[in-house]
Amino acid sequence: MKKRRIVPLVVSLILALLVSAIVIFYLDLANGPLVILILSIINIILFIGAIIVFNNKRKLFRFIPWLSFILLNVILLPLAKPTVKERMAVTNKNPEHTEVMHLVNGDIRGVYNKDKSVEVYAGIPYAKAPIGELRWKEPQPLDNWSGVRECNKFAPRSMQPTKPAVINSLVDIYSEKGWHPDYKMHPAQNMSEDSLYLNIWKPSNVSTNLPILFYVHGGSLTTGSSAYEDYNGEEVAKRGVIMITIQYRLGVFGYFAHPDLAKESPNGTTGNYGLLDQIAALQWVNDNAASFGGDKDNITIAGESAGSSSISALCTSPLAKGLFKRAIGESSSLVVKQAPHTYRTMKAAQEVGQKIMKEQKCSSVDDLRKVRASKLVSTKYENPSMTLDGYALTKDPYDVYLANENNEEALLNGYNVKEADAFVVPTYLFNPTNKGNILSRLQKTFNKEIGQKMYDLYKDEIEKDAFSAFNEIFSVYWFIQPHHSWSNMAYQNGVKVYRYQFTKENGYHGTYHAGEMIYAYGNVKHTYRSYCYNDSDLALADTMVSYWTNFAKTGDPNANGLPTWDLYNPADNKVMELGEHVGAIEDRYLKLYEIIDEFINWKIINENS
Q: Smaller CB count within 10 Å for the chain: N or C?
């Protein structure tokens, strides 16, 4: 080989390896089929080999490996995306079938988990499919079916916009603060407008009077699934509690509002179809509890994020009265003078509805019902909020508590200390908050006076770390203060309240929004991200799932061997810390609560003037 060819060859090989590394990195992010990875590796090997072979050729020929490599990647990389599959009820292969269960509308059969300690029934319908003429109507009662329905796989998730797997993987890298490649296929769950189904996990060989934990998933009322691994109900069932997860209509299908829909409704309602689904599922559980060994007089409703907002709505809905006994709310609440998210006025809801009609070029609701679900789900107008419809919600949730008309007799609720990071950080990704811009940003979001008060309160923290101080203020405004309000309102009405603050950091979500779920429902031991957790996480998960299931059984999370969780009392200003330390700590946000209350009062006055 001529000496003058060595340097270009080395440069070409270094560049080829760099480009190949980027391709391999992308393939891991894209979560595509293994065959695409194999073909890409073959392409890379041939590419590097061709660079060497063509090194002594004329300059024009030396571009052939690059051209071939680029063309093949143009073909292969778009194919690198998750497959869409049905999700099975259990992970063990060839699971044994349960005995037939007799429900009100027909017979079903489920499957056992690996050690046969839990029976799982997935994909049980609780209402008619809300398709065709039933789109944007109250959930309709099921027709009876004949034969035995096999309930061994989860139903498709509700219609929802989906992000590219690459984006989700980058979010995971941010959460994990590192890259942990696995190159394993993680298929996406299938999706359908026909999604009003629920799932049951129950202890084996127990047939009567078990407490029931009824779980509503989160996802901003626009995304989510009842089959998510972090709240798989197997561990809850092993503690003697039947766990039920439900699906409900989301986004434009669940919270679209239009005056014509209210006119055609026998109840004059529009805008809360997803909430009505939740109530229908809860009614189904009451009607069928005896069939699966549950006690309909001992039901606890639970949810996280938008699911928790939904729980606070169920606590105030006259339609849900008497359908449950207790409530668990994680990381969101509507029980505040003015909710910061997940709730809007009917006027605002119908304005969005009109924009969607115009966007879809429809002149009537009947026309809009004919639009394909796959097209409608891509609307640019989000529908992430419930509304005061006069039927499911007859008063604002805060006003229901003021009138002492809430439905729960005991409440366990709380938040994570870094709730807002996942929402604030992307907003200012390329221009992070610092000491120089934090005041203007606070004043822009709130107002000049309130922003200054927040800045003054956090002056020392801002001097040390303005980025974290800014995120904390929004964590309190969006999530923590609403739970403080919910706890106080429930306490004033004689409800037994247990309040927590989740502080456990780990290698994944940690104390970000949703980070507590994998602990509360006992799934740390089952995650494929086991490298993110250690023995202290397993210990906390054992403690938390004990608290949650004890509360579901008796309304009291305490039991022998657990750190004592005292009832909430505003006079003590204490909250239960769930982290490396488990025990009561001082609530350190009291002064910020006062400023936020002042801001909310200012907003209400200005909006009504």
A: C
Same domain, 487 and 367: yes
Cα–Cα distance for residue pair 123/139, rounded to 1 Å: 17
Backbone torsions φ then ψ of 382, nearest 5 degrees: -70, 150
Report the alpha-carbon distance of residue 331 to residue 305 in Å, rounded.
5
**Number of structural domains found in the chain:** 2
Written as six digits, the tokens of 377 are: 């789900």
pLDDT tens for each residue of 218-236: 999 999 999 999 999 999 9
Angle made by CA atoms 54, 59, 64, in degrees to the nearest 5: 50
Distance CA 546, CA 538 (A): 12
| pTM for the structure as a whole | 0.94
Is 305 in the active site?
yes
Identify whether 22 is part of a domain.
Answer: yes
Active-site residue, from 20, 305, 308, 312: 305
* Statement: residue 432 has pLDDT above 80: yes
Please tell me whether residue 75 adopts helix, strand or coil conformation: helix
**Is residue 62 situated within a structural domain?**
yes
Nearest-10 Cα torsion for 192, 194, 195, 200 = -130
Let me know whether 76 and 119 are in one domain.
Answer: no
Q: Are 407 and 314 in contact (CB under 8 A)?
A: yes
Residue 1: per-residue pLDDT: 45
21 and 162 together in one domain: no
Centroid of chain to Cα 40: 34
Instruction: With beta carbons less than 8 A apart as the criterion, state whether 316 and 292 touch.
Output: no
Q: Which of 521, 574, 575 is nearest to 548 (CA)?
A: 521
